[in-house]
Amino acid sequence: LLNRNASFWVFFFSRSSARLVAPLGCLVSRQKHTLPDLPYDYAALEPHINAEIMQLHHSKHHATYVNNLNVVEEKYKEAVAKGDVTTQVSLQPALKFNGGGHINHTIFWTNLSPNGGGEPKGELMEAIKRDFGSFANFKEKLTAVSVGVQGSGWGWLGYNKEQGRLQIAACANQDPLQGTTGLIPLLGIDVWEHAYYLQYKNVRPDYLKAIWNVINWENVSSRYATCKK
């Protein structure tokens, strides 16, 4: 899901509590996380998402999550070396927020394409029909969940590996889907205002209507095929 620099820490959550476990050896030896390149130009998704939004979203917002993640991981590594459990615990919200921001956006960029839109094909389409009745039904439900996110967050299509079915979920802020729900992320829709405000103002439904025109179904289908193995 991420570039090879972004796989060095892991969230483990239980129903009653949330705790972050950092593989200590990896924290000591890891390379810094880096901002992934977009697979298209900033203007490539116009008119649905304009170039100014894409430039700011990628080079400023996502870059900030990456930079902050590197900083907090260094602090966490120092706390581990000192055996300072209190500091380790205090850093976990920042790891979750910035790490989630990096994970979510890295998926998001690949979920979009200037050649996107339309409907998926093959196994993914069959699974959507099986689990939601029809593609139109699925689209309506994911749009409604995304519109309904209070404040900032994400709407997701995920795969429930235990049940072998697709599932729609919403996550607040930058909470990573798999780390907080156990669902494997297939398609994420960013509904933070920085993803659309410059073009769509406060009318989130207009942004969500437009984004379906640039969904990269080949990428989503590939993710679905991978997680079923």
Task: Measure the end-to-end span.
Answer: 15 Å
Widest sheet, order of strands: 4-3-5
CATH top level class name of the largest domain: Alpha Beta
* Element-level helix/strand string: EEHHHHHEEHEHHH
CATH third-tier fold name of the largest domain: minor pseudopilin epsh fold
What is the arithmetic mean of pLDDT?
90
Low-confidence stretches: 1-28
Please state roughly what percent of the residues sit in beta strands, choosing from under 5%, 5-15%, 15-25%, 25-35%, 35-45% or over 45%. Answer: 5-15%
Under the CATH scheme, the architecture of the largest domain is: 3-Layer(bab) Sandwich
Global morphology? globular
Rg calc: 18 Å
SS elements, strand count: 5
CATH superfamily of the largest domain: Iron/manganese superoxide dismutase, C-terminal domain
Helix content: 40-55%
Q: Strand count, sense and closure of the main sheet?
A: 3 strands, antiparallel
Estimate nothing, just give the exact number of structural domains: 2
Secondary structure tally, helices: 9
Instruction: Decide which structural class fits the backbone.
Output: alpha+beta
Domain Manganese/iron superoxide dismutase N-terminal: 32-113
GO cellular component, one term: mitochondrial matrix
Signal peptide: 1-18
EC number: 1.15.1.1
